[in-house]
Specification:
Length: 107
């Protein structure tokens, strides 16, 4: 399994088209060939709509994570937006961060 917390930083050193092309033509085929799992973080609001659409179309699944502030309290939320060939619940779910930093689904 490969986890990239924020691959959006690659766009800082490359033009967006090159970064998207590299991901689509090098990263995804390599992951597919090795039958590995690849989790890539991409920051919202940094890239063009075209870049997001191309990447979202190419990936098998999309999981959204966000933090909301309500009444002065932070809420960590997660949802599955896309997952090929799997039934899933697309609603937002609260994440609970425990004292030992273990993360579980909140109630």
């Amino acid at each position: 399994m490969y986890v990239t917390e924020n691959s959006s930083v690659l766009a800082r050193y490359n033009d967006e088209k090159s970064w998207v092309d590299y991901t689509l033509t090098r990263i995804l085929p390599a992951v597919s060939m090795t039958k590995a799992m690849n989790i890539r973080g991409i920051t919202v609001g940094v890239h063009s709509d075209s870049a997001y659409k191309q990447l979202e179309a190419a990936f098998d699944g999309i999981i959204d994570v966000k933090v909301e502030e309500r009444a002065g309290e932070l809420h960590n939320l997660i949802r599955v937006r896309k997952m090929l060939n799997v039934k899933f619940d697309s609603r937002w779910h609260k994440l609970k961060v425990n004292d030992n930093f273990e993360v579980t689904l909140g109630k």
